[in-house]
Amino acid sequence: MADNRIALDAGLAPAGTSGGEPVTARRYTHPLLGTRPVVRLSGQAAAPGEDQVLAATGFSAPDVGPPVSAGHRQEPGYPAWAVLHDPAHADAALAAAPEMAHAERLAGPKPGPALDLYGEIATTLPDSHLPAYWEQVGRAFIAAGRHRQAAMMFGRARQADPFLPSVDPARQRAVFLEFALAGALSVKDIKNYVAGLGRRGGDPVDAYRELRELAVRRTLGGLPPWPDMLKQLAKLAKAAALDVAAEHRSVLEALVEAPALWGAADGFWTSQRKTCLAAVATSDALKRRLVWQLIDLPHSDMDAWWVAFLDEAGAFDLLGADTARWLTAMLRRYRGPDARPPRAPKELLDLLPRLAARIGPADRPLRLGKGTAEEYRIDAAVIGGCLAAGIPVPDPDPKLLLGHWWERDRVDLEALTADDRFADPLVRSLLVDKLSDERWQRAWTIEALRPLLRGIVADRLNCATSGPLQSALDAFDWLYGTLSRRAVAELPDLLDRLAGIDLVAPLTTTLRAGILDELGWDALDTAASELTGEDNWCRASWPVLTVHDRRKAIAIGPGGRIAEHRLVVPKGASQFHYDVRAIFSEGEFQVFHAVNQEQSVYWSGTPGEIHTEEEASWKWRHGEKTRSGYTFLGPRARRFIGHRLLTVGDRRVGPEGHMFHDGRTYWWYTGVDQASRVPRPIDLVTEQLGEPGLPAFLDPALLGEDESWLIEHASLAPVTAGAATSPLGTDGSHLGFRVAYDRVTGRIRYHRIDGVHGTAQPTTGSLPHGRWSAKPPVPWGLLDVPGSDRRLLLDGGYDVTARDPETGAAHWRVYMMDQDWIANHPSPMAAGTRRMPPKAFWHFLTPRDLPGSRALREISEDTVRALLAATATSASALRKALGSLLPEVSHPLLLDGLMGFFQETNRRIRHRDRLLTVLDRQTPRLLEVPEPDLDGALDGLISLCPEGTGGTVRQIELASAFFAGAIDGDTAMAHWAVHGSRYDWTELAGRIGGLGIRAASAVTPAEHRAAVIALLRFWASSPLNDPALHRGLLDPGKDGDEDPPVAQSTAEGKLLPLDIAAHFGGWARSQAAGNYRIKAFLQRGDMPRPEGFLDIRPVARGWATVKRLRLLADELERREPVPFDPDAVAHLAKSADLDHAEAALWLAGLPGIDASNVRTDKSLSSETRAALGLKVTEAADACERLVRVPTEARLELYDAAMPNDPGQLWNQRMMAERLAEAYRRRPSG
Q1: How far is CA 417 from the centre of its chain?
Q2: What is the pLDDT of residues 628-637, one digit of tens each?
Q3: Which of 265, 281, 469, 1207 could pair covalently with 227 via S-S, beta carbons 3.0-4.6 A apart?
Q4: Strands (E), 359-478
Q5: How far apart are CA 58 and CA 32, in angstroms?
């Protein structure tokens, strides 16, 4: 049946098929064609018109054969329609045919000009021809694949229907079917068609059958049902006195196998739920098909609707022995690679206990894993629900993380924590999802999680007192950024254990293992000391390294300096931040500059011959990958640029690749796109790339079944002078390292070319957030340690971490220096390495001080403790102590390196003391507001400072307590760098009343309204409401994070620096553009200028008084939100000369508007947009205009518009007038 229907749609059904018209072959001749005939296949209805059109152009009458097939009725096109139905005006139609043919040729490539031409042709035709004409135009656009334009033309045809003497229902039905099947029928035209069916006289059953045929054939033809299809069918079925449920069942049974059915809008199903339920409940076939179809659909918000619907229909009762298989497939929908996997609906979770009874002991546990090494997440409610229901769940694999574990209303944490198997994935999920201090603090309130949280903190404390140094520092940094007084309450010994972190044992362990500054490259150290520019870079021409700044380039090799050159800098370059590159090839430097949209190239041998052109290199420079330095010099010491050699005089520039060289063949690899993800050998004669292939060192035969090479972490080069004793290993003729990754187990194997090999271990802490991970890092080298037979495994890109190969624990971490956005100063743990070489050039590092290295291999904890004590005194005391306690260490750069380690360790000890102060002292008065809620309430009304760490609430509490005299300056400043604020909340001073407009708005979330109420009550009785306050800006200096500015308190006043990254705001930029250290401060009374002072302003005397703030909080608490009033919006728009959407957003509290200083690409939610009656485009345009309004000016305008009586906020007409007045009074610009 379905096959016949599809064949009829295509006109290819067997002749005589029921429901079709005959299709015949018609043979025509023409005098100009001689004996060559023209044969056309035509349906019975269209053939007479086509015959006459062809006759008018000189063709003969046709010879007609017997029917060759059958198809649905096809109405005559144009001009055939005119020849048949209006012969008196057929000449006009035939005259238009050549121009129509010309327009048809334009329809695909140039639809705009085609539409213009079709419009001109229409003006030459009788009005009664226009319906058929525009239908024909629509067919031309369908043939060209322009379905949107085709639907527009069909709409024009329907608009022209009134020009017809009468409408032929059969013809109209046929053309509707034709365009519906082509996907060129708008929902508006369908709606008009349905309305016409209802108005048309005749048998209502016929009207229903006609719409049903259109609906079924359109869907089977591949187009999703339109949203009102079932509703419209139900209306006509009722009018025809048919059983609506039975008819719906019939339609769904006809369509249930059609893929297009599942592309229908949600409203298609939800609008007819009751009738559909009656239809499905009486059809086991439908129930079975729908319940299995659900697991094939992509996850959506409709899951909840479908589960409830199918449950009510009794569909799950038919699963029987397949229950476990269906449930496994269904629950897998709620896993994914992202931090937020899809949420399982409550309706499905409630179903689990009933389905559990149907899962027999012979059924396998639910297999929810992916079977690969990729980390993935599953909604925690799925696992918890299964465990609580008694549904067998297998042991979790190491890659499992749990999503949404904090949603207590959905997740059965008691069931999860009761099963020890899920302790590890839950702990890792807690760590990974610690996106804010607030969430971590809320987790302490959950009884089931407290043992896990206590275990995590205990684990971090243990790690901070044992193991290697970097792992200990990572653990401590986690504690520093996470612990709160809530943790102190849960762990009575926490403060004592924190006080016991002295880092002596970890530092001793690492010094015994080896540090980077025990190795060095004298030529690089010397060159680096000569480069005095703020920025400097390394450029590889392996085995030659060019190190340069903006003025000088020096080429060095394993044997020392090779060449140097003073750069010729383009005139005026110092006015811009520009790019400069110096590359060594064929004994000279190629020097490249990109300055102010202009690029230039010259060679150091002919510095006067500078080639300049329009800058075109940004396409690769701004997205250039950082490489390891394996870009080689080829034959005749010419460097590779891409896979071609660079000859003196060449102007070619380009990004670096990652090359391999076995002494004979060079391989080129970039990995930046699909075509370059495999190495290719270079033909040195043609300079062309060969077919993909690998060096013997990377032979695929060396891999396991599920393994592949990690090419970017592999290396291969011939031994060169100076690398014969490489600390990264050599077999005497080659240098090399390879890494294999198992995609199933996640195992990472490494192999050094001298045969040393191993397996990378999971990390115990990595930047940036110190999380523990089951995924091992990918190494790129294995470093020999001077004075020992031990080695360190190296991994990381920009940050290089050295680990214990056996445990994966981290000893030290240093950073590379070739990033434009990083200041080029040595890493604290490589303080003796003035310039970090690219990784490929670590082969040229040699021991600096073997006696000193041997002494470090045996250093005692007592020596380390004494040196740390000296570090706390001064740098000179430390250097003196090193001389007396480690006399074997003589090399000055190794001594610098040791000083860096001790100073970095001492910095953390100072952090420990600061944290102890923070945790041990309680602020007298608390602002009981969740941080995310207050952030949401303030967002877009005060400046955003993205560097903050979520300390807005804590800062407000501390500032209030300090100015009230409840805490001293040391206590307040102990929180510096611990509680940095994401918002410049000092902008609230003198303007806080403006928050009332947002808080009263109906589109403001309830939790944000509650946060404003709490803040208003707190502020009303706080010194922060003092109109005599001043706001200021200061620069704490480059060491401000470690040595914060001082809070001042005298009889005349108080001054409190605040860890708010004020440099994001317009005020700071106006004072010191380009200074990224600027912080805020508050001052009360007369005080001397703080160190680093930049500017100070008095707080505006705004609306807020103690009485008003309390009245406003009372009104907000006792009243419902202000209903949205379209009339008030119209009044505001007219009075303030605003766009309607802008006025709506101003009146609603500016929801969804970014702060003007930082763009986060927020957008108005669909719910808010609907509540305000705004369309997507107009809302987006209004948001784009409003984001240009300075953030500070927004709250200032709101504060100015506040009524004396806060209760008048609920008078929207009056508030529209007050906002308009404030808007008109605002300063220009």
Answers
A1: 31
A2: 889 999 999 9
A3: 265
A4: 376-379, 400-403
A5: 9
